[in-house]
Amino acid sequence: MNVLLDNLSLYGEGLLGTVELTVYASLLALVLGFLMAAFRVAPVGSLRAFGTVWVTVLRNTPLTLLFFAVVLGLPRFGLVLPFKLFAILALGCYTSAFICEAVRSGINTVPVGQGEAARSLGMTFPQTLGDIVLPQAFRSVIPPIGSTLIALAKNSAIAGAFSVVELLGVYKPLNEMGYSIVWTFVWIAVGYLLVTLTISAIFNVLEKRFGVAR
């Protein structure tokens, strides 16, 4: 217990860093994920191709490699940002590919007749998707999206290797100060558990409110 009490501010700073990374990267992942899902079902071939390439490349690229590509690659093109923003970009873009596939699977559960009826009424593709299809698809993809964002929270630990303040990185200064490595990681694990349980609770509420009854 002394490990936690003696270093409460250090643990708090790390936990706050992990929460910030999770929240901002989740927002980016949700926006890009829904956008790419729309691209993948769009009637325009170039948009479908772009969405397919986005998902294929990101889902099959190790997250650590993507971090290196963002942190070391983007500055070569003149884009110099704080490491935290680079981490949010890497996490958000990577996770968006999985969000996209979850949303697309939800779109495929919506009966084809719904879209045909909307088009027969003169609705455009964006109107059909935004007003008819996505609201129904969202109800069935709440659990997989929640699981994906929980994975994002745990993946944020990689950011610590790129000079970003987050929870896992707390072990380095504590190890140097001679604290028990076992108890150091126990409290780090508790911190991650708090974050993931919070996300799980939020999505449980969403599922009860909007989910499809089984």
Automatic annotation (TrEMBL):
Domain ABC transmembrane type-1, first and last residues per copy: 15-207
Where is this protein found?
Answer: Cell membrane
| Alphabetical UniProt keywords | Amino-acid transport, Cell membrane, Membrane, Transmembrane, Transmembrane helix, Transport
Quote any Pfam family the record assigns. BPD_transp_1
Stored PROSITE patterns:
ABC_TM1 (PS50928)
The membrane topology noted for this protein in its Swiss-Prot or TrEMBL record is: Multi-pass membrane protein
CDD domains listed in its UniProt record: TM_PBP2
Which parts pass through the membrane? 21-41, 53-74, 80-100, 149-169, 181-206
The record ties this protein, via InterPro entries, to:
AA_ABC_transptr_permease_3TM, ArtM/GltK/GlnP/TcyL/YhdX-like, MetI-like, MetI-like_sf
PANTHER family, alphabetically?
AMINO-ACID ABC TRANSPORTER PERMEASE PROTEIN YHDX-RELATED, MEMBRANE COMPONENT OF AMINO ACID ABC TRANSPORTER
Record-stated family: Belongs to the binding-protein-dependent transport system permease family. HisMQ subfamily.
By what name is this protein known?
Amino acid ABC transporter permease
Q: Which organism is it from?
A: Streptomyces decoyicus
Q: What is the lineage of its organism?
A: Bacteria, Bacillati, Actinomycetota, Actinomycetes, Kitasatosporales
